[in-house]
Amino acid sequence: MSLIKSVRGFHPKIGDNCFLADNATIIGDVIIGNNCSIWFNTVLRGDVNSIRIGNEVNIQDG
Q: Which residue spans adopt a coiled-coil conformation according to this UniProt entry (predicted)?
């Protein structure tokens, strides 16, 4: 199961029909649009600044 964690009162918002890999990490002020895929070993860390991901975006590990 993906790690989804609140930070400083911000909780990630995940759109409809998104795939989150089992070991993806999503923290803080992160908004993910609809129909996105967040793949294995990715870390989206919105602890200092916000992260906004539009619709139909694919985020993969480096």
A: none
Q: Fill in the DSSP letter of residue 10.
A: B
State the alpha helices, DSSP H only, in 1-62. none
Q: What is the pTM of this model?
A: 0.92
Q: In angstroms, rounded to a whole number, what is the distance separating the alpha carbons of residues 62 and 48? A: 21
Is residue 62 one of the residues assigned to a domain? Answer: no
Question: Alpha-carbon distance 12 to 18, whole Å?
Answer: 13
Span 6-60, pLDDT tens digits:
999 999 999 999 999 999 999 999 999 999 999 999 999 999 999 999 999 999 9
